[in-house]
């Protein structure tokens, strides 16, 4: 058993387990996920059509609706939002 205690630097800045999940990125993706989920609910488009128009596999829409945010990138979420916004915007 080690008696060494963690340094102050280790306590204040613990190592990241998922370095690709930056807090700001996660917050942005969470906000977009909520917006997109609401837009999907009021859209006349089906999930398959939304996925097709956004150029994403249907599984990404399923992941989004199931709240599996880690499966979607910020770019994918932005593509989805612009696809649905374009559909809902009156001509």
Task: Describe the SSE topology.
Blueprint: H1 8-12, H2 23-42, H3 47-54, H4 58-65, H5 74-88
Helix pairs in contact: 2-5, 3-4, 3-5
Features of the shown structure:
91 residues; mainly alpha; 5 helices; 62% helix
Descriptive notes:
The chain is built from 5 helices and no strands. It is mainly α and about 90 residues long. Helix 2 runs parallel beside helix 5, helix 3 packs across helix 4 and helix 3 (about 45-55) crosses helix 5 (about 75-90). It starts with 7 loop residues before the first helix and ends with a helix. The model has no long low-confidence stretch (mean pLDDT about 80).
Kindly summarize this structure in a few lines:
With 91 residues, the protein is mostly helical. The protein has helices at 8-12, 23-42, 47-54, 58-65, 74-88.
Helix content: 55-70%
Q: Quick one: biggest sheet?
A: none
The outline comes out as elongated
Q: What would you report as the Rg, rounded to the nearest angstrom?
A: 19 Å
Strand percentage lies at under 5%
Low-confidence stretches: none
Number of helices: 5
Instruction: Report mean pLDDT, rounded to a whole number.
Output: 81
Straight-line distance between termini: 70 Å
Q: Give the H and E element order.
A: HHHHH
Derived structural class: mainly alpha
Number of strands: 0
